[in-house]
């Protein structure tokens, strides 16, 4: 090997060793974000403007968002630090669940490409936001935008009875909260085929699963109130008011605890309770220990085995 090649190999080895050190001391999101920046992977992939290249970028973005959500969820588990090894174990568990091929009613998650030729009574098309659908990387030419519009048509026509189009006022992109704007494709649909369900101005639904001090507070003045496609400003109504043709409903505040949710230190949860967890599913409480903010529940889940959860973080629904 010549000197130039040897130096490049040495730099590569040094970089990998630095990743190993970070892995031992930081959580999975910090490591993944650092690797994506240090290797130049993101910038390299952005050079490919083909649909395949765009899909690769979006996959990495979703991976980072998924890792961030996982890190927040790990706060519930006693002794967990959100390490990469913990994330990999969680992914393996989710993969095993996906192998279930029973005939029970369920929601089928798939890409629009995989949905071609299929039909369902009800279809939910999520992420109907500018720069997401249509993708920010598909707006360079008219032909690219038309391809995105054709994909939307494919998704919309998969519905036999009804299609739901959803968009967020704010969304995590690359692990950071950004404002969102409804997709132009929604405005292109004839008004008579649309029914708008918009949250009340005081019930902002943002930053799910993420504490307010991670990326800083959100400026609510930047959250957009979406107007109907006809251009008529929406009128806020209550549940007791007569509903017009274009219904606008309130969303329940995300901070309001449910009656059966055990996520407080003074929870009355006891051994023998059967609970439901959003990640681990159904389980039985084996033991309760600790007091106040350190109160923990040892729970045997049907999927995932025995876990010790901190009750001040755990989101549990008591079934019995």
Could you please describe the fold and organization of this structure?
With 320 residues, this protein is of the alpha+beta class. Among the domains are: 3-96, Orthogonal Bundle (PCRA, domain 4); 112-193, 2-Layer Sandwich (Double Stranded RNA Binding Domain); 273-319. The protein contains eight helices and nine strands. Strands 8-7-6-5-9 form a five-stranded antiparallel sheet, with no helix packed on it. A two-stranded parallel ribbon has the order 1-2. Strand 1 (120-125), helix 7 (142-156) and strand 2 form a beta-alpha-beta unit. Helix 1 runs antiparallel to helix 2. It starts with a helix and ends with a strand.
Secondary structure class reads: alpha+beta
Q: Helix-strand pattern, N to C?
A: HHHHHHEHEEEHEEEEE
Number of strands: 9
CATH architecture field of the domain at 3-96: Orthogonal Bundle
Topology (elements, then pairings):
Elements: H1 3-25, H2 28-38, H3 41-45, H4 51-73, H5 84-98, H6 112-115, E1 120-125, H7 142-156, E2 159-165, E3 170-173, E4 176-179, H8 184-187, E5 274-277, E6 281-289, E7 296-301, E8 305-310, E9 316-318
Parallel strand pairs: 1-2
Antiparallel strand pairs: 3-4, 5-6, 5-9, 6-7, 7-8
């Amino acid at each position: 090997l010549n000197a130039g090649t040897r130096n490049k190999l040495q730099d590569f080895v040094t970089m990998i060793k630095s990743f190993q050190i970070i892995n031992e001391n930081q959580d999975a999101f910090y490591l993944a974000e650092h690797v994506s920046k240090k290797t130049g992977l993101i910038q390299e992939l952005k050079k490919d403007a083909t649909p395949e290249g765009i899909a690769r970028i979006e996959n990495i973005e979703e991976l980072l968002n998924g890792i961030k959500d996982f890190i927040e969820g790990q706060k519930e588990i006693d002794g967990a630090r959100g390490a990469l090894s913990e994330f990999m174990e969680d992914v393996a568990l989710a993969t095993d669940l996906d192998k279930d091929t029973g005939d029970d009613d369920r929601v089928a998650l798939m890409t629009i490409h995989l949905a071609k030729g299929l039909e369902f009574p009800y279809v939910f098309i999520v992420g109907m936001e500018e720069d997401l659908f249509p993708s920010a990387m598909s707006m360079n030419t008219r032909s690219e935008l038309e391809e995105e519009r054709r994909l939307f048509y494919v998704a919309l026509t998969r519905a036999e009875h009804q299609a739901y189009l959803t968009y967020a006022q704010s969304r995590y992109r690359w692990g950071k909260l950004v404002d969102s704007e409804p997709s132009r494709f929604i405005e292109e649909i004839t008004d008579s085929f649309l029914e708008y369900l918009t949250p009340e101005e005081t019930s902002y639904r943002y930053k799910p699963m993420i504490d307010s001090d991670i990326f800083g507070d959100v400026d609510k003045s930047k959250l957009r109130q979406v107007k109907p496609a006809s251009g008529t400003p929406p009128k806020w109504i209550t549940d007791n008011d007569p509903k017009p043709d274009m219904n606008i409903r309130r969303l329940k505040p995300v901070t309001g605890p449910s009656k059966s949710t055990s996520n407080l230190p003074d929870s009355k949860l006891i051994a023998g309770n059967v609970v439901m967890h959003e990640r681990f599913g159904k389980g039985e409480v084996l033991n309760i220990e600790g007091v106040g903010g350190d109160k923990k529940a040892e729970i045997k889940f049907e999927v995932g085995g025995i876990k010790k959860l901190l009750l001040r973080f755990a989101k549990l629904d008591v079934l019995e």
